[in-house]
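FYI - complex with GLP, inputs then prediction.
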Amino acid sequence: MEIIVLPDAAEVGRVAAAKVASVARRREDPVLGLATGSSPTAIYAELAAEVAAGRLDLRRARGFALDEYVGIPLEHPESYASVIARDVVGPLGMDPALVRVPDGRAADLEAAAVEYDEAIRAAGGVDVQILGIGANGHIGFNEPTSSLASRTRIKTLAPRTREDNARFFDSVDDVPTHCLTQGLGTIMEAREVVLVAQGEAKAEAVAGAVEGPVSSAVPGSVLQFHPHATVVVDEAAASRLRLVDYYRHTYAHKPAWQRFA
Ligand code: GLP
């Protein structure tokens, strides 16, 4: 795991976007793993600026969202299908026909979940997966005790997650109770993962994921098994990391040929 500690959230967005762009530029039709939530919004803004400046072309990129609420109308502004279309596909100049979100309205949710994993595989797998992390350590919507080998499937949202996401809805009661999410095993198949976290509220989850024992109690900790995981955090989100001085030292002395930002 590479852990990069930066002064503020804007820098986190800039450096994480540079990493994503460096992978995306390796091919004409990269496969991007797309996270929703607040954490990656600066990444998308940075990537959109690269596209607008003509330094990045994502017209042929494919995209797979991490997750979707179950039962939410497609046109609801907070369905992840709406969020991905509005905040990602449009600004990044992606082709909507090449971007998929799990179908949380499918009559047969289990079949939709299996088909989603197959579609990722048929696309050749995800080149770079963007991730945030929940305050309880979840990635995607893989709540604590998710199997570390799990595939895309239905999950029940933890009460903490519903409270955290209530800000996007009129009230916590309006937050759906279930979701479809890529599994931890699915996420682990991405060739590169870039996880971002900002703010004190994420400090415990980041410490657990990066330095804690690998455990389904902190689903993000599964990334310790990933051969190419980059974790980019601001000072507040890094505040519970024991080895923070080592991470700073490592980044400051990163060889020029390894740098991407
Ligand atoms: C959400 C999403 C995750 C996200 C996490 C953190 O509910 N399903 O993909 O990473 O929880 O959200 P935020 O970035 O808004 O803090």
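The mean pLDDT is 97. The radius of gyration is 17 Å.
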